[in-house]
Specification:
The chain has 159 residues and is mainly alpha-helical. Strands 1-2 form a two-stranded antiparallel ribbon. A two-stranded antiparallel sheet has the order 3-4. A hairpin with a 2-residue loop joins strand 3 and strand 4. Helix 1 runs antiparallel to helix 2.
Amino acid sequence: YGESILATTDAGYRLDPAVVRDVDEFTDLVAAGRGATTTAPDQAVADLRRALEMWRGRPYTEAEDAAFAQPEIRRLEEVRALADESLLAARLQLGEHEEVIADLERAVAADPLRVRAAAGRSRLERRGHVGAPGERAGGRHPRLGAHRSAASHRGGRSE
């Protein structure tokens, strides 16, 4: 984006127009992907992956200490989390159960209180794609187990 994402003007600060376009494109792709998760999961996966490829770390790091930037930073971080969760949901719709298990576990481990990731893990369990946490297809699976830990943080609820 050049030297700075912020330009100082007589009226205050102005975001670089390239940043504004990127934010708009990111949020549009996430909205389109989330909307297509159940009806067109292949398109949802493409849109959500494209959006997530645009993510380059914490948004607006140059202005992260400024009070005016905080709501937008939180909003964009939430949109990113929703994109991650929706991508996993779309991949589940496409039948990528085995491939999604490790991603779900990483999501639950990273944020145990985020319900959608833990709920996705529970849906796989209920559908028989994984057994009780840590078990699958008649044997123990060494990567599973974060789900119960997340449930205990939420007061013992499985979802």
